[in-house]
Amino acid sequence: MYSRPYQSIVSDTKLDRRRFLQVGAVGAGLMLGTPSAWAQEADKATPPPKPKTNIDEALKAPRTKYSLPGLYPGRVVHVQDDKAMVKDSPSPSVVEQMFNRGLEQLTGKGTKESFGLFFTPDDVVGIKVNPVGSGLISTKPELVQVLVSWLTAGGLPKERIVIWDRFDYMLADAGYTAERFPGVKIEGLQTMDERAAEDPQADQSRWRDADGNHISASNFDKDTFYWADVEGPQDAAYLNQHVFNGKHSYFGKLVTQRLTKIINVPVFKNAGNGISMATKNLGYGAICNTNRLHKPLFFDVCTEVLAFPCIRDKLVLNVTDGLRAQYDGGPMPAAQFAYEFNSLFFATDPFALDAVCHPLIIEKRKERGVKVDEHPRYTEYLRYAERLGLGVADPARITKLSA
Question: H-type helices in 305-346, by residue range?
Fold first, then answer.
């Protein structure tokens, strides 16, 4: 099928206005991250010292039975079915079969029994999707529908399910609407004025209140935050995109106050020579004021944010969507590097999951002729997590299963 490197299987994908925001300079400065700047700093003979953070405060909190790495530390299940994608769209029935097989292999129990391992009907469950690159490389609604059906079959009312991400407008673009998911809540932690993002001279009142504050400021929990000794820029464009500046990245109140459990559904894609999968989907998706962190703490954020109890104790399942994957150009969508992988990955341990997926994307990048840098710095955040007791990164301690 692929006679040349970089051939796209989605050559007819059009770049609309919102997709432009996601792949252009504005999009890169949002939640996507720019690993090149971080790598340039790391390449220096004497890398700059890591800024201080409040990670020690997060680690003091007592753990629960669900705390990372979860019920099945170091266990990762890969399910692949060449029939999963049909005419560039997921087959709902095949995806459901794949989900059932993967969950059973992970837990050793069927879907009905496995629900009770993670949830009760009184839980409020948040399904964290990645809507970046709508229609190309975003989390597939067909997979999320399978998750919703599993949860409701287990006795969880629809109104206790929340499909969420950081940015509200991206959710609708990626197919997460009330029409498609009736009865399920769909929420972004924040809004962003796209017109003002495109044009700094545009009216700013659509995202700022009368006091000059971001209209989404009240959605974030001032008592729960990731602090890093790095200042956020003061300009209006930054505030439009990031809600706050300064040295605090606040967690969304949805995460800290309402959700009792989280299912993480990232996509299979790269971030420069690293990856943008399970840990980054929450590391950069659950807090605000993130662009300041890219250069000095790019991958460490993926470890340290997940150490906070509001993530660490609630994240019970990760399902990486590799139905369509992307091996280069990430974390922004790039149609020429997308391909059908027809895969799902399951784990309670997001660090083991990323540790398994990283070499797979490296293999694909080499296969397609991409120059690859395999320096250990791109996976050090996984070993860091293992040292903190949050996950398993040592390949000798990871159990890889297929279903």
Answer: 309-312
Check: CB of residue 354 under 8 Å from CB of residue 279.
yes
Ranking 9-23, 98-112, 234-248, 351-365 by mean pLDDT, the lowest is 9-23
Q: What percent of the chain has pLDDT over 70?
A: 88
Please compute the mean of the pLDDT values over residues 148-162 and round it to a whole number: 98
Q: What are phi and psi of 299, to 5 degrees?
A: -85, -25
**What residue segments make up the domains of the chain, in order of their start?**
17-193+215-402
**Residue 48 pLDDT grade (very low, low, confident, very high; cuts 50, 70, 90):** confident
- Tell me what pLDDT residue 45 has: 56
Using alpha carbons only, give the angle 162, 290, 59 rounded to the nearest 5 degrees. 75
292-303: pLDDT as tens digits = 999 999 999 999
| Residue 60: Cβ-neighbour burial (10 angstroms; 0-12, 13-18, 19+) | exposed
Distance, in Å, from the CA atom of 351 to the CA atom of 356, rounded to the nearest integer, reads 9
Q: Rounded CA gap, 384 and 283, in Å? A: 14
Alpha-carbon span 107 to 329, nearest angstrom: 34
Rounded CA-CA distance 240/32 in Å is: 16
Residues in the chain: 403
Identify the pLDDT of residue 86.
Answer: 95
This prediction has a pTM of: 0.91
Strands 274-275 and 246-252, by their bridges, are unpaired
Kindly give the pairing relationship between strand 125-129 and strand 89-90. unpaired
In the prediction, which pLDDT does 32 show?
Answer: 44
Do residues 55 and 307 lie in contact, with contact meaning Cβ atoms separated by under 8 Å? yes
In which band, very low, low, confident or very high, does the pLDDT at 39 lie, cut at 50, 70 and 90?
A: low
Q: What single letter denotes the amino acid at residue 54?
A: N
Q: How far apart are CA 331 and CA 132, in angstroms?
A: 9
Give the 3-state secondary structure percentages of the chain, helix then strand then coil, rounded to 5. 40, 20, 40
Q: Tell me the one-letter amino acid at 281.
A: N
Sign, CA torsion 341/285/61/316 = negative
Quickly tell me which residue has 């791109």 as its tokens. 378
- Contact by Cβ (8 Å): 229, 217: no
